[in-house]
Amino acid sequence: MRPLDEKETTLVFNKLHKFVGNNLKNIVLESQSHEGPDSNPGRYCFRLQKNRVYYVSESLIKRATNIKREKLVSLGTQIGKFTKAGKFHLTIQSLNLLAANAKHKVWLKPTSEMSFLYGNSVLKGGVGRITENIQVNDGVVVFSMSDVPLGFGDAAKEYGRIAVKMDPMGLWHRETRLAGYVGAICS
C-alpha cells in the first residue's frame, strides 16, 4: 500500500470534486480519525493497493505496516479503482463519503426507489426534491425521501429544464452506479 502519486491524486480529486465540489476540503483536510489506541486524532488519507484507492486513517496505516504487501487484501474504505486505461472510477463503497459531503442531491419518491435500485434511469415524475443549480453532467447523489443514500450518477438535464419545461415521463438521471448495476445511459 502506497501513497498516490501526483497524477493519481489529480484524477481522484477531480472525480471527487465532481460530486462534492468545494466540500472536498472536508474530506481531505478537516476529517479527523478517532480510530485506534492513540489519544490524539489522526487524519484520513488516500492509499493505493493493486489499482484500488482506499480512504484510510493514518493510525490504521501505521498498524498495517506489519502485514506484507502481497498478503494485504483491503484497508479502510475502498472509494474507487483505476482502470487499465488509467481512468479512475468511483465504486459504490464511496457512497457514504459522497453522501455526507454532496454538492448536488436528489430525493426520490418511494414509488421510483426500486426502479432506481434495479439500475433504471430516474424520470422527472420520480423526483421528490432536488437541490438547485444542477447542470448537465454534474455529479449527483441520490437519496430516498427518508435521507437514505441510494446511489450516485450524472445529471442528464439541468435544473431549470427539470423544474419547468420537462415532461413528467422524461429521463432526468443517467449512468447510475449502484451495487454492481449500471443503469442505462440516456440522452
TrEMBL record:
It is found in: Nucleus, Nucleolus. SUPFAM superfamilies: Pre-PUA domain, PUA domain-like. PROSITE patterns: PUA. Keywords: Nucleus, Ribosome biogenesis, RNA-binding. Its main location: nucleus. InterPro entries: NIP7_N, Nip7_N_euk, PUA, PUA-like_sf, PUA_sf, Ribosomal_synth_fac_NIP7, UPF0113_PUA. One of its GO terms (cellular component) is nucleolus. GO terms for biological process: ribosome assembly. GO terms for molecular function: RNA binding. Residues 104-180 form the PUA domain. Required for proper 27S pre-rRNA processing and 60S ribosome subunit assembly. Interacts with pre-ribosome complex. Belongs to the NIP7 family. This is 60S ribosome subunit biogenesis protein NIP7 homolog.
